Amino acid sequence: MLTNAANLKGLAVQATDGEIGNVVEFYFDYETWAIRYLTVETGGWLGGKRVLISPYSVRQVEWEARRLDVSLTRKQVEDSPNIDAAQPVSRQQEAEYLGYYGYPYYWGGPYLWGQEFAPVPPVLSTGAGAESLAERVRKESGESRLRSSEAITEYDIESADGEIGHVDSFVLDDEFWAIRYIEVATRNWWPGKKVLVSPEWIERVSWRESKVFVGLTREAIKDAPEYSAKTKITRDYEERLHRHYGRPPYWMPGTETKPALAFTGA
Fold first, then answer.
1. Less Cβ crowding at N or C end of the chain, within 10 Å?
2. CATH level 2 (architecture), domain 153-264
3. Which residues contact 103 (CB under 8 A, 6 or more apart)?
4. pTM for this prediction
C-alpha cells in the first residue's frame, strides 16, 4: 500500500507486551531509497530516549487505528544497542544493531533488502553463524548511507532548467518499505499545487546547497497530475504519472535495484 509519510508520523508502536512509543521520523538509504529504520520516541518509558525500529520487525500497520505492531518485546528494545537517533548512524552501529536482533545485513545482496525484495524476517537466532557478533561488527568498515527524512524535507527542488519548489513530504510503500515518490510543493511558482516525482528521476542531492536536482524540466513538473495527501494512489494514477513524465515504472522488470542518486557535499 502507498501512503503519505505524514500518516506514518505519530503511529503508536506496539510490542508483543505493550506500547513502545510513537514514530517521529525515519532513516532511509540514499542509494535505494529504502526505509531502513523508524525513529521512535519512547516518552516516559525510557526517559524520552529515541530508539530505532527496523522494518524487519514490523508485523502489520493498522493505518486507521494509528498503530504499528512489531514482533519485539519491550525488554528487547530496552536492551538493544544504544544508538543516538539524533546523530548519524555508522555502518558498525548498524551491524551491531542487526546482529543483536539476528537480522541480515541489507547491504549483503543484490536486492532492496539484501537477498530479498522486502524485509522478510529471517529464521535466525541472535548470534547465528561461525563468527561472533563482535567479530562481525569489527569487520564492518563500509560507509553508512543513511539520512533522516527530516533532514531532506524543505530542500529546494532544482529542475533541469531552474528552481521549481521544495520537498514537502514522501509517499511510502509499506510492503517493501521504500520511498516511491517525493512530494514536491510548487507553491512558489503555481500557488497550491503539489506533484509527485520518483527518486529514480533525481540526479543528485547537495547537502551544502540544501537542494535536490531532478532530471526533469519545470514544464514537465508543472503539468504533472496534481497530488494531495488525500489522493488515493492507485496503479492507474501511477501509470498516468509515469506516462506524463515518459519514464518506466518501478514495478517493471529490471528496475528493482537501480541506484537512485548520489548525495554530495557540494
1. C
2. Alpha-Beta Complex (3.90)
3. 54, 56, 121, 122, 124
4. 0.88
